[in-house]
Design brief:
Layout lengths: L1 H23 L7 H13 L8 H15 L7 H12 L8 H17 L1
Length: 112
């Protein structure tokens, strides 16, 4: 129960960041360092449920579209994350992991 609630709150928080970026556009750039730091840290957190991670990748795209040229300073970090995520392999017999990697792939493509 607790883990499902934490996962739902994390997913909602990431979605809200994306919504804020789409709403405020370039004005969100004054908060982009903090947002990016928290999102990057969340991706490396082993306790964060894997279902949240594709949403984080999509949110990178929302941030990039919102802050435009200001995103350049995050580009090398995000590209490294995307490259690492795209190199992941999955056991074809593990359907839950296959679904996760499909979601991850969609998250990667939405950033690009």
């Amino acid at each position: 129960w607790y883990q499902r609630r934490v996962r739902a709150v994390c997913e909602a928080a990431v979605a809200i960041v994306g919504d804020m970026c789409r709403t405020f556009g370039v004005e969100i750039s004054s908060f982009s360092d903090q947002l990016m730091e928290q999102l990057v840290n969340a991706l490396s957190d082993q306790q964060l449920h894997k279902s949240v991670k594709p949403s984080i990748l999509r949110t990178f795209g929302d941030i990039a579209l919102a802050i435009k040229q200001h995103f350049v300073k995050y580009l090398s970090v995000v590209m490294h994350i995307l490259k690492t995520a795209s190199e992941a392999t999955v056991d074809r017999n593990d359907y839950e992991m296959m679904e996760y990697y499909n979601d991850l792939g969609k998250g990667i493509l939405s950033v690009l």
